[in-house]
Design brief:
9 helices; TIM Barrel; 14% strand; alpha/beta
Length: 257
């Protein structure tokens, strides 16, 4: 019924009860989980989850907050993994201009290199865009890829339209649960439904009802209800549309496993 298009199931926060967490999410209606890697060290973990759970799909990428520890040879490792054909996307990649102390030039170098790998392998990308939407779009205009998702989108209507024109969907999740998040809630209510996908980013970005707690994939069902309420539609319509959108942007999602 629902697809969690961005969840870090391999995170250590789930080590004690991962199977139970997934079972609770399935019972709540989540039938697919997309798990992006964040660095080379996580490649084996996300691949193992995908190999042992038919409803889990993975992506390989180097997150902008991890490039400080990365080496240039990690891009070669990424290239080799993508050549295996088991990933549905390149991600999580992008830029983060919010966290202080990150090397912005290094982030951009790794981002550009990974966009080129995505183009070479014909894969969509899962983008981290925090405080960097314009810079992200600048690179996407220069290096054409086959779409993807702008994770945790919080840009403008114009930026949303630009992403859509480039073949991207926009990820919405726990931030919608906060009454004070007026910009995100307005975007969720007014953007075309065909441009929206659901995500949790669990264990991160906990919703209003679980502040300072671990976010969990079962919360996706409540996010869907919030989106439906904001748009004045039935949750079944949100489920159908967001699942269709995810499958459209990730062609390998529906492939035989």
């Amino acid at each position: 019924m629902f697809i969690d298009t961005h969840i870090h199931l391999d995170a250590a926060e789930f080590d004690a009860d991962r199977e139970q967490v997934m079972a609770v999410a399935r019972a709540a209606g989540v039938d697919r989980f997309i798990v992006p890697a964040v660095d080379v060290a996580s490649f084996d973990r996300v691949a193992a989850l995908s190999a042992t759970h038919v409803d889990v799909h993975h992506a390989y990428g180097i997150h902008p907050m991890y490039v400080m520890q990365a080496r240039d040879t990690d891009l070669d490792v990424l290239d080799g993994r993508l050549a295996q054909g088991d990933a549905i996307a390149v991600g999580e990649i992008g830029l983060d201009f919010f966290v202080p102390g990150l090397d912005l030039a290094l982030q951009e170098r790794f981002f550009v290199a990974q966009l080129r790998l995505a183009r070479e392998h014909g894969l969509p990308v899962i983008l981290h865009v925090r405080r960097a939407v314009d810079q992200i779009l600048k690179h996407l205009r220069r290096i054409e890829v086959c779409g993807g998702i702008a994770h945790a989108f919080n840009g403008s209507r114009q930026q949303a339209a630009t992403f859509s024109a480039l073949g991207f969907k926009l990820g919405f999740g726990g931030a919608m649960s906060f009454d004070g998040s007026s910009r995100i809630r307005r975007l969720a209510a007014e953007l075309p439904l065909e441009s929206i996908v659901l995500e949790t980013d669990a264990p991160d970005i906990p919703p209003a009802w679980a502040l300072r707690q671990r976010n969990e994939p079962a919360n996706l069902a409540r996010f869907a209800n919030i989106l439906a309420e904001l748009r004045g539609v039935q949750v079944e319509e949100v489920a159908r549309a967001t699942s269709h959108n995810a499958a459209a942007v990730f062609p390998r999602l529906g492939a035989e496993r």
